[in-house]
Amino acid sequence: MKPGLKRGLKITAAVLLVIVAIPVAIITSVFIGTSAIVDGVELEGVARIVKDGIVDVGVIDIGDGKVALVDAGNDAQGKAILAELSRRKLGPDAVEAVLLTHGHQDHMAGCHLFPHASIYALAADVALAEGREGGKGPLTKLFPVKPTGVKITRALADGETLTLGSRTVRVFAIPGHTAGSAAYLVNGVLFLGDSAGSSSSGALMGAPWAVSDDQAQNHASLHALGERLRPEAATIKALVPAHSGVLHGLDPLLAFKP
To answer: Among 175, 194, 221, 232, which residue's beta carbon has the most beta carbons within 10 A?
Structure first.
């Protein structure tokens, strides 16, 4: 091989290595210092946490052999979710609703497995969830915009209340990670999606900057949510981030500091 060609191949290989290494390093940094998701955690008789790789899914019993999901996981085959349904002696048709915390693909991959479910998201994330617009974060804006196959049944608004079977779900807009990031409060369990995480020391963390549209807005949203819920702090039993372990009570949110 000619020296010039060999040198060119080495340079090309080095460039490709850097291109691959940078996003890998960024994604790895997102999870440094976070607590681990624990599969099978039962929350206040309301929900069970299912670990689906790097994300969790909340499975909420809504009565009469039906469940609602908070997000639909990162696995298009939905193995962890289907195993949980099987454990309950239920099938995919038992899923009546999927409450999306935001429109990133790692939280929606299993939606197609539940054709009878209504799929909900905040209005500001409908286009993102359906793949008609892309992410705006430093890393997510590099991903191609393409249809996801997800069709939002109904767009939600901040402050709305849903009735799903025997459960009441309160909807809160917490923009920043994405424009339409949502939190869902169900009988004292607050699902936060990617808008927050839990550290290995038990503190609440904000959304990772690399995959968030606006980190400053995310921090402001978490502060505002804490203040909205402060009057009912005694009733908040658990905080559920999507990529890390459960925190207990509202205090971690009230104490949040960027």
So the answer is: 194
